[in-house]
Amino acid sequence: MAGNASLSTALSVLPGKSQTWLFDSACCNHMTPHSSLFSNLDPAPHPLNIHIADGSTMHGNSLGFVSTSNLSVPGVFHVPDLSYNLCSVGQLAELGYRLIFYYSRCIVQDPRTRQELGTGPRVGRMFPVNNLHFPPVALVSVAAAAAAVSSLPSLALWHSCLGHTPSSRVQQLVSRGLLGSVSKDNFDCTSCQLGKQPALPFNNSESISNSIFELIHSDVWGPSPVASIGGSRYFVVFIDDYSHYSWIFPMKSHSEILPIYSNFAKMVETQFSKHIKTFRSDNALEYTQYAFQALLHSYGIVHHLTCPGTSQQNGRAKRKLRHILDTVRALLLSTKVPVPFWGEAGLHAVHAINRIPSAVIHNQTPYERLFGSPPDYHHLRSFGSTCFILLQPHEHNKLEPQSKLCCFLGYGETQKGYRCYDPVSHRLRVSRNVVFWEHRLFVEISHFRSSLTNSSVLEIFPDESLVPSTNTFDPPLDFSLDIFYASPRQVADE
Q1: Where is the Integrase catalytic domain (predicted)?
Q2: How confident is residue 405, by pLDDT bands cut at 50, 70 and 90?
Q3: CB within 10 Å: which end of the chain, N or C, has fewer?
C-alpha cells in the first residue's frame, strides 16, 4: 500500500477487520468478513475459493444481501478470514452497470436511466465506497443474476414447472421444504397476466363430502375449432368433491363419455376400493342420454342435474374448466408451442394442478388429500423446454448422435417417463433417459412445422389405433389462441 498513506492511516486505526468498502477490479465477487452486515445470509451451493496475492487460499461458504445505511448490495459472499470489504468491479459490470473512474472519484451509473447509484472518492491510489444503492427494479434483476450464479432454482422456474401456478402457492411449498433450496427472487409473469386475467369471479360452492368419491363433479369442454395432435376436439373432466383431485380425458366426440366414465368408475373401485355415490353435471345431452343414465343406474349412482338455465349449480366443474384453460393459455403463450398441442398442455396442466395447495382444502394439495401423503415434485419439468432423449441402439450408428433434440410436453400416464415431441420424425416419444435444458425454450433452438393438419397425424401417432378419423367438416387448423376464449359447448336445458 505504498503511496496510499492517507487511506493506510485511516484503516490502521480500526481494530481487527476494517469496516471500509473498497472497489476492487481483481475481485471476482463482492465479499466481506462481517456477518452482521447481512440482512439475509444463506448457505452457498458451492464454496467460493479465493486465491490471494501471497499464494494462500480463503473460503466463502455463505451468500446474502448486505444492507447498511450507505450500502445495499445483493450477491455478497461472507469470507470470515478476509480483512477488508471488497466491492467487485467485475460483478457490477457483469450486471450491466457503468463504472467511471475520474482523477478524484469513481461513480457507478445505470446506463439505461443514467441514474447515479454509488460514488467513492480517490484516496491515494484506492477508491473506497462512499455509498452504493440499487433501485428497486434493479434489485430484482440483480437478485436473479445472483441466483443464477449460485445455481439455485428460482421461484420463477418452479412457477413454470408447476404449470404457472400463483407464486403464493409456490411459496407455500417452499416453506414446507418440499422443493428443496430455492432462491427467493420476485418475478412477474406476463403470460399468466395475459392468459389468466378473469372478468368476474364465480361464487364458491360449499362441499358436502366427508370422504373421497362420495361426490364427483363433471363437465365437458368443446368442440375446439382446432383439433389436437391426437385428433381430439373435446375433453371431459371429473373432480372429486372431497379431495379436489381432477382427471382429464381428451375426446374426439362428446359421445365417448360413456366408455370413459365406465372405465373411470371401474378404476375407482379397483384402485381405491370405493364406490362413487353421487355424480353432478349440467343438462348437456351427453349426460342426459339414455345410455349414460342407464350406466349410472347400474352402479347405483345418484345423478344430480342443474336446474334449467342455472349452470352455476355446477360451479365447481365450471371453475375447474376455467382453471385448466387459463393454465393451458399461459403454457402455450409462454413457450410459443403451437395450439394443436393444446391436448398435451391440458394433461400437463392437470398434472400440476393436482399438486398445488388449495385454500378450500386447508392448504393441502389434492394429491395429498386423495393419497394421504405429499406428492414428489422433483420429477416436474418446465413445459415447452428443450430436452434431449437418448436414442435406442437401433436408431443410430456409432458415428451418429446418440440423442435427439425434442420439446418437453408432459408425463407418461401409463409409463414412468417423459412425453417429448420429436421435430424431425414429427412424433411423440416417451422415455426416462431425458436430459433437460429448462432455461432454454425449445423454440429458441429449433422450430415446429408451419402447420399441423389431420393428414399429418399419422406422422405423430404411427400406431393406427391412435389415428383419428378425418371429418370433412373440420375447419383448417391454425395457431390462433382464440379457441380458448370460446364458450363451452351449448347446453340443452330443456
Answers
A1: 197-374
A2: very high
A3: C
